[in-house]
Amino acid sequence: MNRKFHLINKMSEILPNQQKQKAGVRKSKKTSLRVDLTPMVDLGFLLISFFVFTNTLSQSTAMKLATPDDRVIIDSSVVPEKKTLNLMLGADNKTYVYNGLDLNNIKDVGANTTSIRDAIIEKKNALRNEYGSDSGMVVLIKPTPSSTYKNVVDAINEMLICNVKTYVLMDATANEVKAMK
Fold first, then answer.
1. Residue 101 sits in which domain range?
2. What band does 151 get if pLDDT is binned at 50, 70 and 90?
3. How many structural domains compose the chain?
């Protein structure tokens, strides 16, 4: 207890005024207070260094976007129309699908990510039945102005989940948007 009191006294000292007293007039003893701010400065630097350190630990993260390799150029005439699947991303998370250039047989497959997966698996199975393998399959992802960024991310995630090697992100044409309605 005595040591603690000594430390507190060291942080602030009361110094008496060193004035000469005149004879006959008694003045009250005035004292000035001197506060040692060294511990406060130390605490300030500790807080600043703590906040700087914790701020550098929490760096912002971004989602890595896996894109097809641009070095491998596929001539569009090499890929058969039957190996192409078109995914149209519409309003309210709805997805529309059609094969090749057959825009007349566009169908609404639903508003969840499993519907995209089901359409891809169905197309892969059809390709396996017809060609013996699903290699060479191309998926065209076409977001419309009414779709959201989340729809695009979900569609690209499904490409990775279903192991689709070739997919293209492109704009939907006016005819495709009309066919969706």
1. 81-180
2. confident
3. 1
